[in-house]
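#onboarding

Welcome to the new folks! Below is a worked example of what a typical request in this channel looks like: someone posts a single protein sequence, and someone else replies with the predicted structure as tokens. Don't worry about understanding the tokens yet, we'll cover that in week two.

Example request:
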Amino acid sequence: MNPISNNIGILKNIIISILLGSFIIGGFTSCDKEKVRGCMNKDAINYNPNATEDNSACLFPRPMTQEDLDKTTVVFNTNLTGDFKDVENNLYSSYNHIDFSSSNRTFRDTYGNTQLKGAIISPGIIISHRTYDKSIFGSRDTLMGIAVMYKQVRGYYPEGNDWEYFDIDIKTRSQKHPNGLLPAPNSERRGKLGKCSGCHLQAKGDYLYTFK
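Example response:
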């Protein structure tokens, strides 16, 4: 056998081995670069559908309980009336389920689960608005609606400044449940309600018309 030919064959095998090894290593490196770390839980607020590796940093909404709602009795404002805006205190008494032209015929009472301290509203804050009709004599009349706002964790609903909204059935209100009963979890009367956020985004003080 020709020694030169034999050496050429060996050299070819070495070159092929080197090239093949480089391809394999390069392939692994490429795969490593394509890994995307993120939350892979579909129930999480920050779920990343493009993630290939979980980062153990999933965020979930904080559920508000009926007990939490029942304790939302700290008085913010009562007997607000009229379709005006108080620029100094940023109060706007119109109730968004009622035409603004009729809002001077309503009273609104606003309650919270704690006193607000400063302009930053922390997750867990609850605001309850109870709106009453005004009689022809100017006195408080029938309860017309109860709207509740619950500050969720950051990222829950960026378009609504992370507020979760509840349209309470006024028939569920009682002495035991002054703000009514929470709608069912999958009810259309709770969650990221555009009809609520669309109105409140015009307010200062973190979407709160009754914020001072």
